[in-house]
Amino acid sequence: MEYRATIGIEVHAELNTASKMFCGCSAEFFGRPPNTNVCPVCMGYPGALPVINRRAIEYAVKVGLALNCEIAAFSRFDRKNYTYPDLPKGYQISQYGLPLCVNGWVDIDVEGRRKRIRINRAHMEEDTAKTFHAGQASLIDYNRSGVPLLEIVTEPDIHSAEEARQYLIKLRTILRYLGVSTADMEKGAMRCEANVSVSPADSDRLGVKTEVKNLNSFRSVKQAIEYEIARQIAILEAGGRVEQVTMGWNEHQGRTVLQRSKEFAEDYRYFPEPDLPPLELSREYIETIRAGLPELPDAKAARLVSSYGIKPQDAAVLVGDGQVAGYFEAAVRAAQARQVDAQMVSNWIVGELFRLLNERGIEIAASPVSPEGLADLLAEVQKGTINANTGKDVLAEMFDGRSAAAIIQARGLAQINDAETLSRLAKQVIAENADAVEQYMGGKESALSFLIGQVMRASRGKANPQLVRELMLRQLGNKPDSGVDRS
Fold first, then answer.
1. Most exposed of 254, 286, 291, 402 (fewest Cβ within 10 Å)?
2. What percentage of residues in the chain have a pLDDT greater than 70?
3. Domain ranges, residue 268
């Protein structure tokens, strides 16, 4: 039987405000000594009253607008009651009945097609403390307790692990463009849970869903969803029933494991938070925030294509990181003054520059090669001073802080464009490689590449390869069509 997976994603994004959601404690808790970043409010002391963080609301509205959500003029906070030790109050202040942002969407690209993922809601809440398990003991650090969170919940519009991964990549990019969250999954600033169900492909009814937690990387998300889909299919194929439970992802074992039975909304006994007033946002306030939104990834990609004529697939890669897109545009401005086109700049950034940065573990913001430096190098390639292969070697050396011109001069890398010199080398190679010449004349095109390669070798890579090809063809004459295999 064929089965169809249905997946909904819940994301908790920490907002990088200066203070916590309901108190004045610093929200910068990462790396701080345990339990030093707390106060009576975030520790839930009796009589301590919360105050709403205005900047957190502004950031949440920004995200909602970027996700094409409706922003509620009237919303409120609720108490979500549960008695885990990571919540010192015994409840979490969250939004349930009247969330801040609803009915949005985001578009993703998967396998060459565009798909829209609907956003059910994005609502505010406070983060919990962090629990550490050591043998038979459990330790709690309350520094994180009370940090502003935005929970973003999709509709069940996702049908594969890859779609889920692409959605999360797109969401992280948007959060970073807005500057509201680092969205660093490895540090827990963006955490996600997947609700997964499978059902017969020809059925309109959804299967029983399980929630998968502990997903702290895009790789984990993809692997966990794939495993859970396979696990549920195996249960159904064996005649069993999938139970609605919460599963955890065990990275080391590469499998989901049972954590607990799934809670339902009534288990949390939601009721309006009595210590906080409802949120009332004016249209003017919302439109002011909308006017201040930056150019978002999809709009930026469309502009790069229309303004610079680069390939859409390259634009999609460049806008995946706002700093990369900024580097590209700065390099294009410098390159255009040197008669180098934008597509050439894109090719080198997406290809060789990315490779070198990845090898050295460097972000593009810290690249030793500036946009202007890259443009200088590409101008030398464009003019024919050096060929593309030599240019790649020069770019690698530029990571040591030297300019392209200095490297080319010091190493004597300037490309040989003198026809007389290259013609003499071509004649020498033809005379020394009679077998290859005979193969070429017999119709084997790859023999020509071999002969050109010998000229490049004799010139120590400095010959202009296009000119070498022209001179070699001229000296060999027209090749007869012999019908011989041209592999």
1. 291
2. 97
3. 3-289
> Is 273 in the same domain as 305?
no
Grade residue 262 by pLDDT with cuts at 50, 70 and 90.
low
Please list, in sequence order, all residues whose beta carbon lies within 8 angstroms of the beta carbon of residue 242, skipping any fewer than 6 positions away.
Answer: 197, 198, 207, 208, 210, 232, 235, 236
Q: Which two tokens stand for residue 15?
A: 């907002």
For residue 393, what pLDDT is reported?
Answer: 94
Residues contacting 175, CB < 8 A, separation 6+: 13, 63, 181, 183, 190
Type and span of the H or E element at 266: none
Both tokens of 135, joined, read 């043998």
**How many domains is the chain partitioned into structurally?**
3
Q: For 320-377, write each residue's pLDDT tens digit.
A: 999 999 999 999 999 999 999 999 999 999 999 999 999 999 999 999 999 999 999 9
Do 302 and 451 belong to one domain?
no
Cα–Cα distance between 85 and 33 in angstroms, integer? 19
CATH of the domain at 464: 1.10.10.410
Q: Is 248 exposed, middle or buried (0-12, 13-18, 19+ CB in 10 A)?
A: middle
HEC sequence for 92-151: EEECCCCCCEEEEEEEEEECCEEEEEEEEEEEEEECCCEEEEECCEEEEEHHHCCCEEEE
With respect to residue 484, please indicate whether it lies within any of the assigned structural domains.
no
